[in-house]
Automatic annotation (TrEMBL):
<dbReference type="Pfam" id="PF13759">
    <property type="entry name" value="2OG-FeII_Oxy_5"/>
</dbReference>
<dbReference type="Pfam" id="PF13181">
    <property type="entry name" value="TPR_8"/>
</dbReference>
<keyword id="KW-0677">Repeat</keyword>
<dbReference type="InterPro" id="IPR052346">
    <property type="entry name" value="O-mannosyl-transferase_TMTC"/>
</dbReference>
<feature type="repeat" description="TPR">
    <location>
        <begin position="143"/>
        <end position="176"/>
    </location>
</feature>
<dbReference type="InterPro" id="IPR011990">
    <property type="entry name" value="TPR-like_helical_dom_sf"/>
</dbReference>
<dbReference type="InterPro" id="IPR012668">
    <property type="entry name" value="CHP02466"/>
</dbReference>
<keyword id="KW-0802">TPR repeat</keyword>
<protein>
    <submittedName>
        <fullName>2OG-Fe(II) oxygenase</fullName>
    </submittedName>
</protein>
<dbReference type="Pfam" id="PF13432">
    <property type="entry name" value="TPR_16"/>
</dbReference>
<dbReference type="InterPro" id="IPR019734">
    <property type="entry name" value="TPR_rpt"/>
</dbReference>
<feature type="repeat" description="TPR">
    <location>
        <begin position="75"/>
        <end position="108"/>
    </location>
</feature>
Length: 597
């Protein structure tokens, strides 16, 4: 330090005060030094840390910026500044400073791990993985880094790599419940070894964890009967457990053993003042399209919760949704007019109401701000409103034929008869999930495309290659387009399931709210489906809004199904299935996310 011995001593005293937690003394001393030697980066750095701990983020940011300007080659300053920026949600700038810290000190493990965590938040999984590989290379005993690496590998669909990393995390930190839970999850997803011992280890670390109970129960080799039996007992023992009631209702909706709402009703009989149970029951009935019963449940809830002003407002919100879906537009309009601007869900109710009642201009005005969230659902409604009003932006959004593509990939797949037989083994329920788009069929549970069996690995590889081909054929990048703005440096499959439709089965028109691209791969079709171009039964319909809106818009595209054919299209586009008369329509579906680095 250039200002002499006294300033050096003051700096030592300031550091000691900071270490002892005397922030005001440390702050006073740092300011004194800066008054005499304003261009010393170490002092600016110390003051930044003091201000951050005091909670003055603006002052901390100013001091960090000064420290970086005065001492641009100090990796610790960059790392600590990035930590503040990450806390503030400024992840892009935080990543820049983490990268600079690592460039200055490649073995800076803290910065590498921080870089990985922020990159993962930004879905930059390649960069996150590279940082973690480097961190564990320098510090092989870093359990948290192995855990993060395992979770990233799992997200990328590489379960074998995930197992190797998570085994190291569990060995290094045997008391870490997160590592034990992740290891159990991966073992269940692999579809091979019994995951029960892994779940038992995780449960021993977090006894009474109800969320973990659901995960373990879902992997029960006894299938739906055993799962329902165990979950029923646990819900009965924990009657306020909303997630448990929902999981049990979902299962019962597929097994048809008893009405899905049975556990809700039993719990409410003893706990009529439990708000969340009422809200859950109404949501369940609405998801099952039992809107008249949902309205009756709301009225029962109003009686049970009389005098509860907060509950009354929530019930008004739920009643507005229910009334509009039930076709009582006048009552819905009255309720919506009385409700203040709300969350995303409520605003979408207003959008649907405007569309349903012939006001597409109003719908467009309401939904356009919601697209800033990146929601596929918001974009789908905006596209519908533009289409109804004749807005040319609809052609920009959905008019290019290259957005919807079909690829015939049977040659890259395992024999389709073998694949069909395996998929049928994975369909273990009797009816469709309550909150999914299919009607008249079943859907597999979990992600079938990350199973370790060779057949599913071949399927995933063939689908990945097809996705790369699709992306290479897209229109040029457009930074304002919700689909075309994404990077073209690869893509990754997120989630994979199979749908088995039977006689009169179909998908309602819907979008996938978490996807970039969506899909349908045809494994097996009923006799005659797809053979005659004049008969579109069983075909994939693109661009038709939900039928309950009664908008009368025809499809933008109809995709002819063929065994071995893959259809890919933006997740913002409505899609559904034309019903067919008889037989089995067996498909694999998945979403695709962009690879951002």
């Amino acid at each position: 330090m250039t200002a002499g011995v006294n300033l050096q001593a003051l700096f030592g005293e300031a550091n000691a005060a900071f270490s002892a937690g005397d922030l005001e003394r440390a702050r006073e001393l740092a300011r004194t030094i800066i008054g005499q030697a304003p261009r010393v980066p170490q002092v600016r750095h110390l003051l930044a840390l003091v201000e951050k701990r005091r909670g003055d983020t603006a002052a901390a940011r100013a001091q960090f910026a000064a420290a970086v300007e005065l001492g641009p080659n100090d990796p610790q300053v960059h790392n600590n500044y990035a930590n503040l920026l990450s806390d503030l949600g400024e992840n892009a700038l935080a990543l820049d400073h983490y990268r600079r810290a690592v460039a200055l000190k490649p073995d800076f493990v803290d910065a590498l791990v921080n870089l990985a965590m922020t990159a993962e938040t930004e879905e930059r999984f390649v960069e996150a993985r590279q940082a973690l590989v480097a961190a564990t290379g320098h510090r092989p005993d870093l359990a948290n880094a192995w855990l993060m690496l395992g979770l990233i590998d799992r997200g990328e669909g590489d379960l074998e790599a995930a197992v190797a990393s998570l085994d190291k995390a569990v060995t290094l930190a045997p008391a870490d419940s997160k590592a034990a839970r992740a290891r159990a999850t991966v073992e269940a997803e692999r579809g091979g070894t019994d995951p029960a011992p892994y779940y038992a280890r995780a449960e021993a670390l977090t006894p009474g964890d109800l969320e973990l109970f659901i995960a373990r129960n879902a992997a029960d080799p006894g299938g739906p009967p055993a799962i329902e039996r165990h979950l029923t007992a646990k819900v009965n023992a924990n009657p306020d457990w909303l997630d448990g009631h929902m999981a049990l209702a979902q299962l019962r909706g597929q097994t048809r053993t008893v009405p899905p709402e049975t556990s809700f009703e039993a719990a409410l009989a003893d706990r009529p003042r439990e708000r969340q149970l009422w809200y859950g029951l109404v949501a369940l009935l609405n998801r099952a399209e039992r809107h008249a019963e949902a309205r009756m449940a709301i009225e029962r809830a109003r009686v049970a919760l009389i005098g509860d002003a907060e509950a009354a407002q929530v019930l008004d919100h739920l009643e507005a949704i229910t009334a509009d879906e039930a076709g009582d537009g006048a009552h819905a309009a009255k309720l919506l007019a009385a409700l203040p601007p709300g969350d995303f869900t409520l605003e979408l109710v207003r959008v649907r109401h405007a569309l349903r009642h012939g006001r597409p201009d109003e719908a467009a005005r309401l939904v356009e701000p919601l697209t800033a969230t990146g929601s596929a659902l918001a974009w789908a409604y905006l596209g519908t409103a533009w289409r109804l009003t004749g807005d040319a932006r609809h052609d920009w959004l959905a008019g290019d034929d290259r957005l919807v593509q079909t690829l015939d990939i049977a040659d890259a797949m395992p024999p389709l008869e073998e694949l069909a037989a395996r998929l049928r083994e994975l369909h273990v329920t009797r009816s469709h999930p309550i909150d999914q788009s299919l009607r008249g069929g079943t859907q597999t549970d979990g992600d079938i495309l990350i199973r370790s069996e060779p057949l599913m690995r071949q399927v995933r590889k063939a689908l990945g290659d097809a996705i790369d081909l699709y992306v290479s054929r897209l229109p040029p990048p457009d930074p304002t387009h919700p689909t075309l703005k994404e990077p073209r440096n690869g893509a990754r499959i997120v989630g994979g399931w199979s749908v088995r439709l039977s006689a009169q089965g179909f998908h309602i028109n819907h979008v996938h709210p978490r996807g970039w691209l969506s899909s349908a791969f045809y494994v097996s079709l009923p006799p005659g489906v797809g053979e005659d171009e004049s008969d579109t039964a069983g075909w994939l319909s693109i661009g038709v809004p939900p039928a309950e809106l009664k908008l009368g818009l025809p499809p933008l595209r109809l995709i002819r199904p063929q065994p071995g054919r893959l259809a890919l299209f933006p997740s913002i586009m409505w899609h559904g299935t034309v019903p067919f008369s008889d037989g089995e329509r067996l498909t694999i579906a998945f979403d695709v996310a962009p690879r951002r680095g």
